[in-house]
Amino acid sequence: MSFHGFAPPPPKRPAPPRFQSRLPPPPMPALPADVLSRIITHTLPRSHHLRAFTKRYKLLREYSLVCRAWRTVSQALLHQHVHLPRPKDAFKFKSANVPLGALIGRGAQTLRIGAEWESTAPSFHKHGYVLMPLLANMPFLTEMWLEEVTVDPAVLSWTQDLKVLHLREVNLQYPKSVYQWRLPHLHTLYLAGVSVLSEDESFLSTEPLFTPITLPSLTKLFYTWAPSNPPPGLELIGPQLTHLYLFRLPSTSTRQFDQIPPDLFAQLSSLKHLFYDIRYFSDIPLLDTLASPILSLELFYEIAAGKRVEGELVQLPLPDCLVELEVLFLPPPPPNEVKINSLQMMVPPEWREKLEEWIEPAEVREIEEREHDIGTDWAAKSWLRRTTEVVATEKPRPAPVAREQAVIIVEDEQQQSAPIPDGFVDDSDDEEMNELQPSGLDILAFLRNDAETKTDNFYDAEADDELDGEPIEIR
User: Fold this and answer.
1) d(CA 168, CA 114)
2) Measured at the alpha carbon of residue 338, what is the angle toward residues 334 and 340, in degrees to the nearest 5?
3) How far apart are CA 463 and CA 459, in angstroms?
4) Is the separation of the CB atoms in 164 and 143 below 8 Å?
5) Whole-prediction pTM
């Protein structure tokens, strides 16, 4: 029997499996909450500046919609930084029985009370009771901003974990003649326009604002004051300070600046970093009274004209703390920042020659970067970051001990016209000087143990401490 002409039989189909699971595939392992929190944190603005709050809140609200795990982490991060720009916002925290206030307060790490309190309800916060319900619900605060408010300092003692405190245009109102406040862990304090008041007739406003007992851990003090707000008595707290930022404002009526106490620097036995604004020529010799060698010294010199620098500054003795100097001339601000005469866009050659003679021997160089911050809270933070860079880039001291090096940065910065305070040389009869806008001088000196020094030119338009910029190598 022949099988020619017949097709081969089709292959057998594989038998279907006896059992096929209809369950979904196992889910991917979830990230731990702490890992997810760190990932989300890296996507948020690092700054606590007001302009960064909106962006931060928007991102966290979007993250909370991803899934349940992201929502839990995002809400915790959302409640870490609390901003209350208006008095009515504080009513959410007025009672500890309010679940929302207690929930947010337990996770809050920073608190900012904005400047709209005084203008919105000037009688709302005459006493410190406004902060009481807020701080009662926020036991874990580590940083706090108070701006244009009146507060009893005893209320601040409720935040025992507070490490950084910003006070701007704040009235400290004491019910008694004794200062009743203590912050054992506070290491950084910003004071600008702080006034001290009391209902007690025996109260003396000249008493020290703080002592080693009230602020035992304080090492960094940033103080900006006007003649109506003199320094709060640094003779007690001075020996424990390692960073001091001093900036003086003129009187609104006479444009006069307060004099620096002659024995101030002699009391700073632990000081390592100093920012010092020079308003009078008599301020320069005070640098010779520094009690200990410092790592960095930044001087801001603002006077009425470059010729006054040429004629008066260079005639003063060079401070002993500035032994070896390398001078770097910074360019003036861009034309779009300030209206100035085009003739002042360059540092006068005769001024350079006089300065070179004053600091001789020294090497004079040009750099293209310049600073943008003076006399503000952001400026203080920028200076603090620069001092950190000085310490971080410092090399081990070789053997034998190398003599200290210093770097001075001189900035020809244009300033607006202002009456000349006492202590300056008045050459207003000079017709050429009357035609030009006043100029200023900014000196930045880093005392180092080697010839290699770094300084950073930070600037960020969005946030105060989210700084950028490439470091400038100085060799």
Assistant:
1) 10
2) 95
3) 9
4) yes
5) 0.65
Strand extents, DSSP E, 302-345: 325-330
Contact present, 280 and 304 (Cβ < 8 Å) = no
CA distances from 89 to 19, 85, 116, 289 (A): 62, 7, 11, 49
Sign of torsion over alpha carbons 344, 348, 352, 358: negative
The two structure tokens encoding residue 433: 């000087």
Cα atoms found within 13 Å of the Cα of residue 214, Cβ hemisphere only? 15
Structure tokens at 439: 């100029």
CA 422, CA 76: separation in Å to the nearest integer?
55
The separation between CA 215 and the C-alpha centre of its own chain, rounded to angstroms, equals 20
Count of CB atoms situated within 10 Å of the CB of 429: 7
Is residue 217 helix, strand or coil?
coil
Q: Which among 180, 184, 178, 179 is positioned nearest to 159, based on CA atoms?
A: 184
- Measure the CA–CA gap between 343 and 147, rounded to whole angstroms: 41
Residue found by looking up tokens 């602020």 in the block:
215
Judge contact between 278 and 300, C-beta under 8 A: yes
The gap from C-alpha 105 to its chain's centroid, in whole angstroms, comes to 25
Which residue's structure tokens are 């000249």?
206
Residues 54, 72: Cα–Cα separation, whole Å: 20
Best CA proximity match to 378, nearest among 260, 463, 261, 318:
463
β partners of residue 143: 110, 164
Domain map of the chain by residue range? 45-78
Q: Which residue has the tokens 């059992």?
A: 19
CB 243 within 8 A of CB 213: no
Pick the closest to residue 209 from 264, 111, 199, 198 (CA basis): 198
Instruction: Give 436's DSSP letter.
Output: S
What is the block-wise mean pLDDT of the chain (475 residues), using blocks of 10 residues? 65 66 71 85 76 81 87 83 70 53 63 60 50 73 82 79 86 65 87 75 63 85 76 77 85 72 83 79 76 72 44 58 48 45 44 61 48 57 69 44 38 35 34 31 35 30 35 28
Single-letter code of the amino acid located at 348: P
